[in-house]
Each structure stands twice: as C-alpha cells, then as structure tokens.
Design goal:
The complex is a heterodimer of chains A (246) and B (327). With 246 residues, chain A is of the alpha/beta class. Chain A is built from eight helices and 15 strands. A five-stranded parallel β-sheet of chain A has the order 2-1-3-4-5, sandwiched between helices. A five-stranded antiparallel β-sheet of chain A has the order 10-9-8-12-11. Chain A starts with a strand and ends with a helix. Chain B has helices at residues 2-14, 19-46, 54-79, 84-144, 149-165, 167-184, 194-212, 224-227, 236-250, 289-302, and strands at 192-193, 216-221, 230-231, 255-264, 267-275, 308-313, 316-324. With 327 residues, chain B is of the alpha+beta class. Chain B is built from ten helices and seven strands. Classes of the chains: A alpha/beta (246), B alpha+beta (327). At the A-B interface, α1 of A face α5, α7 and α9 of B. Chain B: Keywords: Coiled coil, Kinase, Membrane, Transferase, Transmembrane, Transmembrane helix.
Chain lengths: 246, 327
Amino acid sequence: MIKILIIDDEPLARNIIVQYLLAYADMEIVAECGNGFEGLKAINEHQPQLIFLDIQMPKITGFEMLELLDEMPAIIFTTAYDEFALKAFEANAIDYLLKPFDQERFNKAVDKFLANNQSQTDHQKIKIERVAQQTNTQNERIVVKSGNKIKIISIYDITHLASDDDYVNIYTSDGVFMKNQTLTFFEQNLNKKLFVRVHRSYMVKIDQITKLEPYEKEGYLIILKTGEKIPVSKTGYPKLKAVLGI
Amino acid sequence: MLVFAGLHFYTLYSLNTSFALALKDSVLSNLILGLLCWLISNNLSYYRPKGNKYIYVVIWCLILSALYVAIIRYVIISSFKVGFLDEKILNFSLPIRYAFCFLLIGCMTAISILFYNQQEKQELEQRKNEAEKLTKEAELSSLREKLQPHFLFNSLNSISALTLSKPTEARKMTQQLSDFLRGTLRQDDALTSLKSELAHLELYLEIEKVRFGNRLNTIIKTDEESLRKFIPPMLLQPVVENAIKFGLYDTLEAVNINIQTKFKQPNLEISISNPFDAQTAHPNKGTGFGLNSIKRRLALLFSRNDLLKTSITENQFITTILIPQTS
C-alpha cells in the first residue's frame, strides 16, 4: 500500500483527487487536510509517500509548508494558476497538475510517481527547498519553526541577521529565530532596498541603523536602534556607503 | 496690396514722374511685394523657428527685402526707358523701399507666426483631450474587467469534481458561473441600482461558497432605501473578493464576511468586513491590488480620492465605500 496525503483548502478539489485515485487499487489515502498546519501534523503522523499539494492555502503556502519538513516526500503540486511557481517547480516536483485536470492527466502524474518511487533521492529534496524559498521572497515573509510552533516572520519586523554554522539567526522585535539556510541566500533574496550585507556573518535592515562608529584601525561598527553592535568588514563598508548614500 | 499700389502710384506721380512709369512701377513692385509676403507666410506654415532662432527669420526678412530692392533697381530702372530725372527719384527711393518692404514682410511674418502657432496649439490641445479621454476609457475598462484567474480555474475545478458526485449541482454551478461571467462582460460604466449589483454579487458568493464549503459565511444587511440607490457596476465584487481572500487565507477557522449598506445623505455607504490575524497580517498588505484598482476607478468616475477607506478594529478589517448620489 502506498500512503497518500491530500492537502488543499477546497473540499471539492480534494474530492476530485479522491475520485481519480479510485482507479488505483494499491493506494491508501491516509488523510485529507485543508491547510499547511494540518498537513504538517498529518505528515509527521502518517509519513505518507506521496502528497498532492495545493499552493495557495490559508496562513502558509504549500511551498512554505515544504520548507518546514525535515524529510521530503514525493510531491505532486495541484494548482489553478501560478505562472511563477510553474516555471520554478517544473523540473523539481514529480509533476504539477493544473486545475481543472482530467483522469488521464492525473494518471500520467501518478504513473510518473510509481516509476520514480524506488529511486527517490535527496537530490529532489534540495531542489524543492530552494524553489520554495525563491517563491517565498515575493511574499515578504519568512516561515520558521520555533519549537513545536510555526512562526511567520514579516521581513519588516527583522532588525538583522547573523549566520551561525549551518543556520541563520533572524533577529526580530519578537525575538530570535533560527532558519536552516545560508546568509548568502538571504543576501540574494531579501529586498536590497531594505537589507545590506555588511560582513561575512551579518546582514542588517537599513532603517535600523542609527550610528556608524570607527572601530580599531580602518574598521567600523554599526549601532542599531536596538543598541546591538554589528561589525562592518572591509568589503561590507563600500556596500554600506552605497546604500546609505555617504 | 491695391491700397499700397495706389499710394505708391500717387507718391511717384506727385514727384513728377511720368504717368506710365508710376503705374508700371507701382503695379510691378507691389506685385513682387505681395509675392514675397505670400512666400514667407507659406513657408512659415510648414516650418516655424523654435526657441531663440527667430533671428534667422529676421535675417530672412532682410535678405528678401534686399532681393526686392535689387529687382526694382535692376529690372525697372535698367530695362524700362526712364528719364534722367525719373532715375534719380527712383534711386533716391531705394532705401525707403527697402525699409518699407522690410517692415511689411516683418509684419506679415509676425502675423503668420502668431496665427500658425495658435492653430498648432489648438490642434495639440484637441489631440491631448482626445488622448486623455481614450486613456481614461481604457483604464476604466481594464479596471472593470480584472477577473481573477484563480477564481475561474478553481471554480471550473469544483464543477469538474461535482459532475461525478452531484451532477445537478454541477449544472447549477455552471449556470451561476455563466451568469456571473456575463455580468462581468458589461462594457459600460452606466450606474446600476444597488439591488441589481447585489444580485450579481450573490451569484459570485454562491460559487465561492461551493468552493470553500462551510468555511465561508456571508451576511448581507441592507434596506429598501439603499437598494434603490445607484452604484457603478462590478464595483462590489472585487472588494468582496479581496475580503474573502484576505479572510480565508489569513485565518484557519470559518470566516464571516459582513456586508452592510446604508444611505447617508448624500452618499450610499457600503462597508465590508472580514476577519484577519493582526499577528501575521502586515499593515502594508492591507490594500492589495483589488482595493487599489477600486480606489482608482472611483477616482476616475467621481473625481474624488476619499471614497474608499479601510480601517482595522481588533481582528476585523473593514473596507468602506461611499458612492455619491447625484439625483
């Protein structure tokens, strides 16, 4: 038996997948979920092998939900219209189904999964994660796991980011959150008008800077509104000068 | 020109030139003058100097005047048989002729430039007005016809799901979707009654309720008076769509959308509220494309920027629209 999970916020959209799956004998639908939170719970509980996943859903998108998973099951995206996402995940998921789709098209996607089933690799995981984060940037928010809870951070609440081994610590007015990601990723994806990378290990939100102090010889320190001090590296200084217009 | 020719003739004749010479001279030289005036004015209708290049026009006037005098000097004096005395008078008259010609051409030029500039300005104004009108119409129609593709494709998907399990409902939903789409295809901005606008909105809400099941509830509060008031067509649906999206995608629970209409002299006031999560919703997100385009449309239709307002109370996001009632 192959364990299947359906995540979509529209009951009828889940319904049609259930109907189409009747064509396959050895598949078991372990749960149907209406949003990403329920989805995460069901994934942890049932460890499904295949997930039918909608993208536009309450609170967190399908992409954001995937970001929070440690292990990546096989994914077939089902979406109505999402040009950007389409381009992005074309090469990464098992398949994507554009709503409305018919049984024939559906079978093609499932057959692709069945053919791939044995040869699942980490390769897919890495790719989907990256895609998820790319599309995420347009939403102006970052979804992180904080203990057992899921926290949605608005990028406007961030004061600065600091890298720490494989993680990036995100400092916000609500506290510090860890994200399994590189600082270079944030440098590439956060709005360059709002954030600047001033050091190998630091990025700051530009409007949080109150003062720039000389530090040792040739070095500088940024004083944030919160009082925090951030070192500026030699390569970071010209970038900082450019964004501050000094 | 005839007046000038007469004066010219009289002057020459009174200076004791022969009758024939005075006549020939006055006719010929004024003919040439007329020709030159026509020439310069005609030229100016095609080309007018820009900025400080008027000096070229003055130079041209000077050159033409010189040309005129030269013609008079060599053609008339040399080829006509004129007496010694006549020649002297004519020679004496050359600087006067030059000045006179320059003045006349100068006046003609000034008049032409003013006239053609004025004409061009009028044409430009007219074109500008037409362009503005076209842009406004195009903008209005593009604002009107913004149909969310998400809505359309998801509705079709719901219908597809219903065809197998509940064919009658599938048929009903197809009908509702068609009626709704027909309504959105309306091509004009002629005001419609709130009653018919709400009927159209109802079609949309029925479809959304099928899509989202029991997660979506709507409560419409209205009264007889406001139902008779007028509103631009297809105005409410995008606002409600915005509220539904905002409400449904920002919370996990069931969502109540409240729509209330009231008539408060001289405006029809419509408020639409949806729940939202103050924790995660960023204020910047509040006015998405949906509301901006409505605001723009109201501004184009009523020339006012204060007809759409949004406010936040606890966990409700409220959009208020005022529709001025003219009659």
